[in-house]
Amino acid sequence: MDKKAEHPIAELPGFNNDVRLVKSSSFTQAVAPWPRCQDLTRTSFARPTKNDFVMSISHAWYYQTHPDPYGWKKEIASSLVQEAVALHKPRGETLLFLDFMSTPQRHFAFGQEARTPEGEQTFARALKLFPKIYLMADATLHIEGHAIEDESPELYSVPAWELDDLDLTEMGPTVQVTGWPADSTPNQIVPFDQVLA
To answer: What pLDDT does residue 3 have?
Structure first.
């Protein structure tokens, strides 16, 4: 693509190799839980041109493996994207940067393939671009707040020997279970795809 025809965001070093912008139509058609970047078809993405309206969506992740398992944020984001498009009337396509759909992600359900070593490297490089993407997008939506008002976290007390075979990861002030042996599933852990059933 001719440099003069590109959106300025595409000039960020590594952007075109490591980040995918999702067509707004692909985002609004996606069902909860949102698909990962690597699970979307190539036609879900577009390289931004100077006539395209690029929006970034910033949001907190309240769940360990998926940013919006129930689709609450998607409803809010879809509505705000429609409002922004109506206000700005872009000449080209509306393209979205959403971390989960724009960069390779880890698996969140049984049966999904893990992020490849190449995907890990791509994600690490893309992560360094996030602040500049938020600044160079034509608009940035920040969705904050927790959609589950009546949910309170439960504390589990587990004997230490039961944790021997688990993969634990420090996540800020908490430790979360990120894996366990394939031949056993601890009683207290409900796999993500069963939570949604």
So the answer is: 66
Q: Could you give the 3-state DSSP secondary structure of residue 183?
A: coil
User: 43-89: per-residue pLDDT in tens?
Assistant: 999 999 999 999 999 988 888 888 988 888 898 999 999 999 999 99
Provide the CB-side half-sphere exposure for 67 (13 A, CA): 22
Distances (CA, A) of 176 to 37, 85, 147, 156, 179: 24, 39, 21, 12, 9
The tens digit of pLDDT for each residue in 12-38 reads: 999 999 999 999 999 999 998 899 999
Of residues 118, 129, 153, the one with CA closest to residue 21: 129
Cα separation, 125 vs 141, in Å, equals: 23
Which long-range contacts (C-beta less than 8 Å, at least 24 apart) are formed by 7-11?
A: 7/48, 7/49, 7/50, 7/52, 7/54, 8/50, 8/136, 9/48, 9/54, 9/133, 9/136, 9/137, 10/47, 10/48
Q: Between the ranges 94-108, 151-165, 174-188, where is the mean pLDDT highest?
A: 94-108
pLDDT in tens, 98-129: 999 999 999 888 788 999 999 999 999 999 99
Place of tokens 């922004």: 84
Please report the DSSP string for 100-135 in residue order. HHHS-----STTPPPPPHHHHHHHHHHHHHHHHHHH
Instruction: Return the SS3 of 4.
Output: helix
